[in-house]
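Worked example

This section walks through a single chain of length 281. The input is the sequence exactly as stored; nothing has been trimmed or padded.
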Amino acid sequence: MDAKCVVDCRNQLGEGALWCPLEQRLWWIDIQKPTLWRLQPGGAVQHWPLPKPPGSFALRKDGGFLFAFRSGLATLDKPGAEVKWLPGLEPGDERFNDGKCDRAGRFWAGTMDRKLGSAIGRLYRVAPDFKLEAMDRGFTISNGIGWSPDNRTMYFTDTPSRRIYRYDFDAASGTIANRRVFVEVDPGDGGPDGMTVDAEGCVWSAQFDRWCVNRYDPDGKLERSVRLPVQRPTTCMFGGPDLDTLYITSAAMGLGDQKNAGGLFALDPGVRGLPEPRFAG
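Given that input, the structure is written out below as tokens.
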């Protein structure tokens, strides 16, 4: 199973890959060099500068984007337009990081310690009316989020603890309960970063600084580990007309001239993903 570099974009910190089934396009961001990227059918690539470092984003139901910038939430009507900042959270010593929408159109985003040392990060839920609520706390670098196909489990990653957690998830109310460890990877550099869930209910987790993306079955057992040609994969997302291509973003920061570092990769995993929901606001 070989991962091929499909866009040698040299992202300093590529993140947030998000496939749009309606437009058949892949969107992603570069956090360190604030940029929104798009891969179109046929391989055409475009990118637009962003005014602040983004942590994550979602596509909106009626068009445009919701962004969790490091310093707060904002909407963007189209690429290149002016962002519209939303009132509410001023993170202080926290900053937003990874985020994703549940199937009811609520956006979930975690925060992290700006100094990378303290477990002050929280997990927030953003309702379609933009009401913001902290749902859990105690994380150092909040990362990958996903849901099981039956909507009964929510996954959430804290990279420094080397853990992916699982919660009982109530889709109707958008509440979580009973946090416990789903996966704890072996000690060493890096750890679990961005993630997605496939149609079989297995979790794919990009392993930052570990040259691989791992697939875990619903019980947390390592089902396979796919070796990558770059050291710092950051997140993964299913895309393509049949959702059978796994796209993987990566980071070039700190890696000098490592070939294709910071590029966008794609592989054929032999399974399909699930369509990503849009923010309902």
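What to look for: The radius of gyration is 17 Å.
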